Amino acid sequence: MRMQDVADQTMEIITRYYQNDIQPFLDLCHEDVLWIGPAEGQVIRTRQALLDAFRAEKQTLRFAVSDMTVVPVPIGSTKVFNVMAMYTVDTFWPDGSTNRVHQRCSITWSMQEDRPSIRLCHLSNAIAYDVQDVIYPTNYSKTFVQPAASQPPPGRGHECRKAFLPGGGQVHVLPELGADHLRGKRGQPCADSHR
Questions:
Q1: pLDDT for res 150
Q2: What is the pTM assigned to this prediction?
Q3: How far is residue 30 CA from its own chain's centroid?
Q4: What is the number of other CB atoms lying within 10 angstroms of the CB of residue 108?
Q5: What region, left, alpha or beta, does residue 187 occupy, with left being phi > 0 and alpha being psi -120 to 50 degrees?
Q6: Quick check: helix, strand or coil at residue 84?
């Protein structure tokens, strides 16, 4: 299986997960999966414990996912793959209120008998910088937010594939690129301005 296939599968299971179709995600979990949710205390080890936890839920929540960017993170292995997804999730609560989070999902896949399985799924919600924080915003912009290179690394193209979610949300799947080739500005998830 190619890295891009794993990235595509990651996008598919996250999208379906937030359509309350979690079975594809659960079916792909390894027996010894580690699932770390975005809230305190959400740490579950093993597929069976994860199945039990989701079966015990009596939720009637609806979600909308938008602006998903999926980044394959090559680690030099044909048996283990890392994929990072970043997206917005709107939660629609039974009382009519809504909640929006900017979520990140890191999934580590491993090949088991020529079939990919999820070994680690770590969800986190981005938090806004505090106005009192004078270290990270300053150093982050100096160190990490830099213009993308004008040309891709040798042997790599400018392609950036797009798909669209219901409700007008965009899904971006980036090709395998080094971190130094990605733009750090919001609204520019591709490796260059070609969309």
A1: 37
A2: 0.70
A3: 18
A4: 19
A5: left
A6: strand
